[in-house]
Amino acid sequence: MAGFRTVRRILAGGAALAAAGWVLRDVPAELGVRPLTSGPDRADRIRRSRQFRDGTFVNPMPETTTMMTAPPVSLLGEMVKDRELRRPPGPIPVRVPPTGAPSPTGLGAIWYGHASTLVEIEGRRVLFDPVWSDRPSPSQLVGPRRHHPLPVALNRLPQVDAVVISHDHYDHLDLNTVRGLTRTQKAPFLVPLGIGAHLERWGVPAYRIIELDWDEEAHVAGLRFVATAARHFSGRTLTRNDTLWGSWVVAGAAKRVFYAGDSGYFEGYKGIGAAHGPFDLTLMPIGAYNASWPDIHMDPEEAVNANLDLGGKLMLPVHWATFTLAVHPWAEPVDRLWREAKARDVKIVVPRPGEAVDTAAAPPVDGWWKTLG
Questions:
Q1: Residue 72 clears pLDDT 90, i.e. is over it
Q2: Which conformational region is residue 302 in: left (phi greater than 0), alpha (psi within -120 to 50 degrees), or beta?
Q3: Cβ neighbour number for residue 144 with a 10 Å cutoff
Q4: Strands 217-220 and 209-212: what pairing?
Q5: Using CA atoms, how far apart are residues 289 and 295, in angstroms rounded to an integer?
Q6: What per-residue confidence (pLDDT) applies to 6?
Q7: What CA–CA distance (Å, rounded) separates 328 from 325?
Q8: Are 156 and 199 a contacting pair, CB within 8 Å?
Q9: pTM of the entire predicted model
Q10: What are phi and psi of 146, to 5 degrees?
Q11: Structural contact between residues 140 and 134, judged by C-beta atoms closer than 8 angstroms
Q12: Taking the chain, what is the end-to-end CA distance rounded to the nearest angstrom?
């Protein structure tokens, strides 16, 4: 009997190791590619970019911190206390997205969680920063876990006209999602300069990749896409800023959308608003902020400032609720946003994951997150 138990333990241990090996098999690919080594044409474009100096992409606005290389001791202390406050107090309500055709003249959005959002603009569909994995990490064995189910399976998404990526961090660019979209969709990927190297390694055909520098534009499916500035950084390893990051303008014949990606607040929003706005809809990040990294993530009040700079008519908050990426309480970003929006007469909409929003009839904020638990 003891020998049987020993054999069973050995088999169980072998199965666990095999399972771990299966999960870890994609880690080298997850880390991405150094774009300067991915071909002379891409390398030449990168070196000619005004954002590229001394071997890396840089922010044109002053930086005040280097937090990401050495978190302060005080922050490490915060991370080990009040962990329950950084999780939702109960199940997050998820809606099943509608499947009908988009309005040929209207503008709507479906927020799937975190930054992943489908915008329906004048009969076209644009998918921003899709992440369908359970963890935004190079391995699904570690990292922050999703707080709510996905509103729709990746292979049940409607056909989209464009997939737009803001930068190459794991919570915005996901290998498994990219591979799934490559199989199930036909749309091109519009990405900041250098990210095409990652996509090519992951199996995206070159003809489906459109790489843009800031202030460059492309026309896809009757829409105009403009890569615009952001105050952030990039990198999937300890090496930083090999690829460019950015925000995006999507313009139809009459409707305009702005997606901020990840960014600290900066004066450049006024210039983007003057050049491309006003915007019928802005998708603005409100979560994962901290006083230690104001250069890379806005707080909710700064997001309202940016929306006003841009001339945003309706603001939809993203980059909150789905993953815990900072030490603030789970609901604090949306609570602060709601308070600031009311104080400054800014129109916002806060949908549940999967809930469709028509910008022409946006529902009033109902505080659904306050009823959890």
A1: no
A2: alpha
A3: 16
A4: unpaired
A5: 10
A6: 55
A7: 9
A8: no
A9: 0.91
A10: -60, 135
A11: yes
A12: 48
